Amino acid sequence: MNADYRERLKDKKRIVIKIGSSSLIHAETGRLDLRKLEILARELSDLHNQGKDVVLVSSGAIAVGAAALGMKGKPEELEKKQACAAVGQARLMTIYQKLFGEYNQMVAQILMTKNTMVNNTNRRNAQNTFQQLLAEKVIPIVNENDSVSSYEFQNLVKFGDNDTLSSVVAALINADLLILMSDIDGLFTDDPNSNPDAQFIDIVENMDDNMRKLGKSSTGSNVGTGGMATKLTAAIIATAAGADMVIANGNDFHNIHRIVEGRSCGTLFVGNKKEEFFLIDYIEKLL
Ligand code: GLU
């Protein structure tokens, strides 16, 4: 049964891949890990060459901007975070364009806020843009529009973390697979950093409230925003929308093709489309 679930991953046609800040930058300096980014660009261009639609949700704007502006770690103040995001997002896209360009793969930038999803017109606009870009064989690269989405009214306008943003994107574009590349191998029965008896969970067939309790609010990384709790919220949204979701370790981006080849890698949450799934209800209830 478990093998069947993994086997199904080979046939996925529309895949959203989320990369956390901690998987993109050197922890010691906060600067980009270019070797890893090269592997990421090759993995995603190759998935696209296999005829799949690919969307990348990339964090890192604030961390990269902070390093560029000579700040030690991520700043606390709202204005500084927004300025960092403005600098860092442009840098990030420049590098992505260069690396994907090596494989003749066109990329595009889509910046969103929670408002983009809650407002009907904005949401349809975003959906149409994704559809058109995918039809044009482009890989859209998505991030939250951190420079304008205020943290002060976080619940109203800001997702705040790219785990939930990527699940919302997956639901919006009817993706059939969401891959979250994190700083942990997947879901454990407890925090493996503090409990050596914590067991790795290979497959989650039903994303119920008991599973959600396994979420801790942080993974211990000091660069990203999402912990396991946001990943489990993402799993609720993605699986209810009918997509499978995998949490895997972003220390090796080769894990991306291993997952899509149906190999045992990361924790797989099996998609289970809810007939009454209505994205806006989930956003209002959970985010
Ligand atoms: N949007 C933030 C950034 O690009 C990251 C949010 C997150 O860590 O999930 O810096």
TrEMBL record:
Catalysed conversion reaction: L-glutamate + ATP = L-glutamyl 5-phosphate + ADP
Q: Does the keyword Kinase apply?
A: yes
Start and end residues of each Aspartate/glutamate/uridylate kinase domain: 13-249
Q: What is its EC number?
A: 2.7.2.11
Recorded GO cellular component terms are: cytosol
Keyword hit for Transport: no
Q: What PROSITE patterns does its record include?
A: GLUTAMATE_5_KINASE (PS00902)
Please give a single GO biological process term from the UniProt record: L-proline biosynthetic process
- Family annotation (InterPro entries): AceGlu_kinase-like_sf, Asp/Glu/Uridylate_kinase, G5K_ProB, Glu/AcGlu_kinase, Glu_5kinase, Glu_5kinase/COase_Synthase, Glutamate_5-kinase_CS
Q: What is its main location?
A: cytoplasm
Q: In which pathway does it act?
A: Amino-acid biosynthesis; L-proline biosynthesis; L-glutamate 5-semialdehyde from L-glutamate: step 1/2
Which positions are annotated as binding substrate?
59, 146, 162
Q: According to the UniProt entry, where is the signal peptide?
A: none
Q: Name one GO molecular function term.
A: glutamate 5-kinase activity
> PANTHER family from the xrefs?
GLUTAMATE 5-KINASE, ISOPENTENYL PHOSPHATE KINASE
| Record-stated family | Belongs to the glutamate 5-kinase family.
Its biological purpose is as follows: Catalyzes the transfer of a phosphate group to glutamate to form L-glutamate 5-phosphate.
> What's this protein's name?
Glutamate 5-kinase
